[in-house]
Amino acid sequence: MEKNLNTPPTQLYNIHYDMKALFDSLPYTKSFAKGEIIYHQGDIADSFYYIKKGKATIFMISPDGMEKTLNTASKGELIGEGAFFDHKPRVSSAKAVTASELTIIDKKILLDLIQKNPPIAFELLEILATRIRLLTTQLDSMTFMQADARIAKLLLDDMVDGKVSLTHEEIALTVGVSRITVTKALSRLSAQGILATHYRGIKILDKAGLEKICGEK
Hints:
four-stranded antiparallel beta sheet
């Protein structure tokens, strides 16, 4: 049966369903323990990764040792593909947030996949373009938006089916504020009926309210 690679992504970073099925079928997997480094900033990338199970965080270390979280990726997402395609040293590191299983994709594996399934090349271009757009938006957010607005923007970007899986610490690291600031901001939003917090998760009750806070409406 002919594959349909035009199915829309189920969430902002997830790859398309049939492309996901292809990566799920690959046998080249490696297990990582919670907290284990997947790749290091500065490494030359000879492969990228598909998250088959678990969760990973992408972060940068500044010259003075400060850590900045760029993104948290979950099952069904790709990580490390930017440096793989431009043949430059990695600008970020990645580590497993939970015990994880990742599929390793090198040049030989990717060329074989593209040869057998040419539409994958266009899917990868779409993913790279989305990455650039989101990083640009994140930079604008960090530069121009106040803390509450930045947090609201992140919640909207990460929301799937009305839920956000980020912890207070992950939100704080991503938007560049303290954990206390995040807790206070979420408490204010909860008091306004915009969201409800629970253990390791946030339920969005009023999407339009969040959009208004971050200036999207």
